[in-house]
Amino acid sequence: MDKLIETYRRRILKAALLRHLRKTGSNCIIINQPKGEIKTIELTEILLDGLLSRFEKQAVSEFGNIEGVKAVRGIYSSAVDVNGRGEFLTESGKELIDDLIAELVDFAKKHKPSVAEGEHVKSAKR
Question: Alpha carbon of 77 to those of 19, 86, 104: distances in Å?
Fold first, then answer.
């Protein structure tokens, strides 16, 4: 993309992590699996950066290169703001992040554990 989008992405992910930490006291999301199992996902800068990058790629593929970049710039510029205490997510920014996290949770619920995760679960039951 371009430098402006990268700057906004960085600002959004930092504000999103801070918001989640203040809201829950943790950077983890706990997901209840269908069979009563519990899965946790830690929200990190890398994870949120990947989610936002995926969003950008979807916008560009849907609207084309020029219009997609313009759309992402517009969405990102209205998603984060600054006050005396630092950067924070606006209502549209909260909605964007919440939608991306909801997609992540849906994916995690459908995703079957890999062999390594399955072995770890078996060893924990012993």
Answer: 18, 16, 23
